[in-house]
Amino acid sequence: MNLSPALDCYTREQLSARDAQRMAEFIAFGPIVFQVSRLMLKLGILQLLRDSDTGLTIDEIAAAKGMTHYAVQVLVEASLTIGTVLVDKDSNRFRLAKTGWFLINDPATRVNIDFNNDVNYEGMFRLEQALNEGKPAGLKALGNWPTIYEGLSQLPRHARQSWLAFDHFYSDSAFDEALNIVFERKPKTLCDVGGNTGRWAVRCLKHDPAINVTVLDLPQQIEMMREATQGLAEASRLHGHGIDLLDPEAQFPTEPHFDAVWMSQFLDCFAEDQIVSILGRAAKVMDEHSRLYIMETLWDRQRYEPAAFCLTQVSLYFTAMANGNSKMMHSDDLARLIGQAGLKIEDVHDNLGQGHSIVVCSKP
């Protein structure tokens, strides 16, 4: 199994027996830990402690926030044992701990909290059912669709906002570097497969005034893309093609000929047989001059261990909420599927943005 140097910690025991016991209890109370920490953020208590030079007592926090002594006490005492705040034993004044600082200041953590609370939290109770059925059993907490993708445009407002913020945060962070990689070959036509709201397509149009981009996605997603790009000066070079990519008979358009095919945070939305089908259909519209660019957050190629942790947990979002049968991929699995689809890996670019890799593929 490939593992980046930062992930070598997964090959040996890291904790003492006492630390392992505490971690086991931390897991047991995980849902409470999450909600306490989310509320400490939402209610501004962590921010209040950060802005205090000498720390604050429970009564001072309660007065500043207009809360009861009891409400603040249960949240702060729980946070003390979670590790997001610290206390001075002599003065009973609480101050921010390092973990609390990251909860406030790390944008990835904030995006992940909103995503897990607004999209995943209720539905994750049905994870076991999803694993047994191979279907997103938890999705019924948000709406009645076969997969979350059919329902994106109809998600409850807060869930849709958090889903889009999560998706855009991770993809957008790599776009600048990705543009340099894709446009090194000076393509004139690009097919954006699973283009969602068209954010990457628009970046391409603005990057190169000669490029024409065709977005392939579900018809309802194409409508979202058209709404998001309405009035754009470059819109004449942006085209939409509605397609159900889960239908193995649904072929990619052959006109225009595509110099580049782009798939960003896309293949992780499908089961392995579906990935081979999609890649195989992409290969049919490629020639020896075309290149396929697959941008994914491959969990085994991460520079920092917390990223691998996040990605393997996100896999369970796909299980319970999205489609029931896909995951964040290991690079060995992706390479195998690329080969099965009749393509070869030409190059791999790692450590782009928030831990992305771009796998460049061509026809043998």
UniProtKB/TrEMBL annotation:
The BVU-1015-like N-terminal dimerisation-like domain, residue ranges: 21-90
PROSITE patterns to which the protein is assigned, alphabetical: SAM_OMT_II (PS51683)
This protein's record includes keyword Transcription: no
A GO BP entry: methylation
Record domain O-methyltransferase C-terminal: where: 188-342
Pfam families reported for this sequence: Dimerisation2-like_dom, Methyltransf_2
Annotated Gene3D superfamilies: 1.20.58.1390, Vaccinia Virus protein VP39, Winged helix-like DNA-binding domain superfamily/Winged helix DNA-binding domain
Entry's Gene Ontology molecular function annotations: O-methyltransferase activity
Entry annotated with the keyword Flavoprotein: no
Protein name: Methyltransferase domain-containing protein
UniProt KW keywords: Methyltransferase, S-adenosyl-L-methionine, Transferase
InterPro entries associated with the record: BVU_1015-like_N (IPR049480), COMT-like (IPR016461), COMT_C (IPR001077), SAM-dependent_MTases_sf (IPR029063), WH-like_DNA-bd_sf (IPR036388), WH_DNA-bd_sf (IPR036390)
